[in-house]
Amino acid sequence: MDFALVLQTILNGLANGALYAVMAAGFVLVYRATSVTNFAIAEFLLIGAYLTYTLSLFFPLLAAIFLALPLAFGFGVLVERGFVRPLLGRNVVAVIMATIGLAATLDGTALLLWGPDQKAMGAANIAQLPKEMPNLAFNVGGVFLSSKAVWSLILALPLAILLVMMLKYSRYGVLLRAVSESETAALAMGINAPRVVAAAWGISAMMAAIGGAFLAGAAGGGGPGHHLVLLGLIVFPVAILGGFDSVPGAVVAGLLIGLIEAFSQLYLESVLPGITQAIPFLIVLLVLMFRPYGLFGQHRIERV
Amino acid sequence: MAEINVENLKVVYRGVILALQGVSMRAGSGEAIALLGPNGAGKSTLVRAISGLLSQYDGRVLDGKIIINGQETNQLPALKVAALGLTAILEGRPIFRYLTVIENLRAAAHKRSPQRQKEITDEIFTRFPRIYERRFEQGGYLSGGEQQMLLLGMALLTEPRILVVDEPSLGLSPKLTEEVMRVLDELRRDKGLTLVLVEQNARAAFSIVERVYVMEQGRVVFEGTAQEAQADADVMEFYLGGAVAGGFSEAKRYRRRKRWV
Predict the structure, then answer these.
(1) Chain B CB contacts of A89 below 8 Å
(2) Which residues of A touch B106 (CB under 8 A)?
(3) Whose CA is closest to B11, among B27, B22, B26?
(4) Is A174 close to B106, i.e. CB distance below 8 A?
(5) DSSP one-letter code for A117
(6) CB atoms within 10 A of CB A112
(7) Cross-chain CB nearest to B56 (options A177, A187, A302)
(8) What rounded mean pLDDT belongs to chain B?
(9) Residues from chain A contacting residue B88 (CB–CB below 8 Å)
(10) What ipTM did this prediction achieve?
């Protein structure tokens, strides 16, 4: 076994997995806060990527990614206030249908604002050379990592871990977990539950923007376009594997799926072409059969 | 000033279920009152209305006034009501079960400065040593009595001037109920709180309140001091079961007969 190749595969898997982790953690955060399954999460990636793209026309790409974050936060809050809040407490199916409707609306809006063509970061049209972040690719002892993978490891992975720590230890994290258990009890204790929930949607949109920007080639490899909506569907198997209501679970599951994909690419793709795209969903089927609560799903506390 | 005035309050759920049919009550500054009554009398609805939480239950005030510290709060959201110094401990011991004891306290203390938070938390741990011992455990694993103590601690961290407590004795043994009432009374006197206590356990409530309102089917059917209530044959028979001796079915018949409205 080629040790360098295995190490390279692990690092690449973690790099991709970190992106999945960030996006899924944001998705789960919203589910925890409001019990709403955001079927428009892939469109959140799309909007985040397009916001980064638009800013990249005026600023260096790295700056554009960071400048897109507050805009994405505002977008998330706007969606919560204008669209989700009036639906809370309604029939679950109604809320699901509404988020699917939101997805279609956001798709259409993106099409209207940015057109149907795939873009290149920082370039007004695809024929121009796209902007890229500083090249951090390296090749040490036969281990090659692309610039995109290195950027993902140094930006997305810490961000995912930061989100987990914030939820566990920060004041906001405690309040969010309190509100997610009972909004009424939280209100009775003077906790501003609507603000806490809106912030969760904002953070989720920020996470999606980071993921979207990377998937859209901020660190090389393509540009924003409607293909992102399909790429964004990876969030669902990751969230389900993690337990759907566990942010740390989503992070671990993201990394795990990234690793499995990388190894599948290395060893199985030549035998079973296309298996890498299918494998996250196959894993979810298996998990749902044997562990319906996923790897880290919350166990219900019941006093007997 | 920390007082509540409710005037001719009518509350409706889902636009059709009339839960309060013109309730009036008053709790003066520093006073302890009890709302007594059987299930479905409207006690918890009155608590929700006072706390601004009706909309959470798809309810709304149809008519009448709620005045807290001189300000009409009929249409105020729960956060604005809480800002007036009113904290409600709702029925069913609504702690955050998946948060540890410490995290529950942190959540309740979110508006306090770190210094003030530490001072009050220390006081809570002194008052409730058992809560201190179990501070790193999830709230859902505490016993009913411990959860009630934790809720009182959380309420203290909000530094209320008016404390509304809904059925604190629910599911507790008589000994624990007595302990909870003692702590409530102690807190009320130490902090100068106005206390609104909702109870089905009339005997427990009489031990710490000055005045009593008895509710039945969304109306107040008796109003008086704790002494007057205890001297009232109807109230005593109805709530303390003095005339009931023939088991559950007879008790039910007896309760039907004794309805005031």
Answers:
(1) 58
(2) 171, 174
(3) B22
(4) yes
(5) S
(6) 8
(7) A187
(8) 87
(9) 188
(10) 0.86
Question: In this complex, do A177 and B87 lie within 8 Å of one another by their Cβ atoms?
Answer: no
Out of A175, A181, A188, closest to residue B88 by CB: A188
A and B: number of Cβ contacts within 8 A: 78
pLDDT above 90 covers what percent of chain B?
A: 61
Tokens 């409205």 map to which residue? B261
- CA-based radius of gyration for chain A: 19
Number of CB atoms found within 10 A of residue B26's CB = 15
Question: Are residues A191 and B110, on separate chains, in Cβ contact within 8 Å?
Answer: yes
Angle between helices B144-157 and B101-108 in degrees, nearest 10: 30
Chain B residues with beta carbon closer than 8 angstroms to that of A187: 52-53, 56, 78-79, 82
Residue A204 has pLDDT above 80, yes or no: yes
Main-chain phi, psi angles of B114, to 5 degrees: -55, -40
**Rounded-to-integer distance, Cα B77 and Cα A191, Å:** 12
Q: What integer is the mean pLDDT of B164-188? A: 89
| pTM score | 0.85
Please give the structure tokens belonging to residue A288.
């749902």
Alpha carbon separation from A225 to A23, A38, A114, A230, B211 (Å, rounded)? 18, 21, 9, 10, 69
Q: Which residues pair with B76 in a beta bridge?
A: none
Angle at B149 between CA B148 and CA B154, to 5 degrees: 95
- Which pair of structure tokens corresponds to residue B204? 């427990």
Is B260 strand, coil or helix? coil
Does A94 reach chain B within 8 Å, measured CB to CB?
Answer: no
